[in-house]
């Protein structure tokens, strides 16, 4: 059995694309004689990132991480994030001449610019240095690969994503529909994900002010949720939903909106499509790689226009457009990329 050490600075109970990806991949790998050991923040004392309580920073030194890796004695090492745990593991591998791979899940330069106005060129320099020691860097989309190549990143490998079609499938719920829109005369438009500034949710919420055609729903939670509830009283906030209950929200909605301009992929895009619901988005990395215009959704600089065009799509076309997203291929690419330590 192959033993893979996964190092991630984010883990359950946190809810984000990184955690979703790895939890699904690990569950799928059990059938392929691959065992994952995970080093994550909740193994140590940790504290919340200032102004963003969902991010936890572990209080741990290099020696502790070294001892833990030595005890695990993995065949392969993969570093999923560029946080404290990632840097300690990178140091361990470099000091011991051990090959390791990394993945690029988050646009930290854009993230830190949006939240704290830290210049992106500074962060990109640090992130590029982090990944420079990696044997291979897994990236989510062709657009992301092209962008990072232009910024001096090397050894990039395109990596797909998967979807659990036993969960995410058309599952319309009439009771839920009536609960959201009792009068039955509006289109239901949803956003699913973290309710945080870097997700550009305000561009979604602003549409609720002047529309008599749509009922807006935000499925998720995060640091700006309470502010949004006060500023946009017409929007429904049911909180986080998971599994089959989340699939019902996707399936019952008429359109899903992905307003972020800084994500590297967008797992919620393929979740929505698997449920037969089109996606409207801006023309940026992630959406332009996944959405097939006029078939599975629409992207445009005018989000309201994108929603209108997405609503014209056909459910069968939407579902058929994402057949390539499966965990078999996702796992195969990962396994073909990792490097044995000896």
Task: Give me some keywords for this one.
342 residues; alpha/beta; Rossmann fold; 2 domains; six-stranded parallel β-sheet; five-stranded parallel β-sheet; 15 helices; 13 strands; 39% helix
Polypeptide structure, described:
By secondary structure, the chain is an alpha/beta fold. The protein has two domains: 2-162 and 327-337, Glycogen Phosphorylase B (Rossmann fold), CATH 3.40.50; 174-320, Rossmann fold (3-Layer(aba) Sandwich). It is built from 15 helices and 13 strands. It has helices spanning 17-29, 62-72, 84-95, 108-116, 120-132, 142-150, 174-180, 201-205, 225-231, 243-252, 267-274, 287-290, 303-310, 315-320, 327-337; strands at 2-7, 34-39, 46-49, 52-58, 76-79, 101-104, 137-139, 156-158, 187-192, 214-219, 255-258, 279-281, 297-299. α6 (142-150) links the parallel β7 and β8. α1 (17-29) crosses α15 (327-337) and α2 packs across α3 (84-95). The longest helix has 13 residues, at 17-29. The two termini are 15 Å apart. The model has no long low-confidence stretch (mean pLDDT 94).
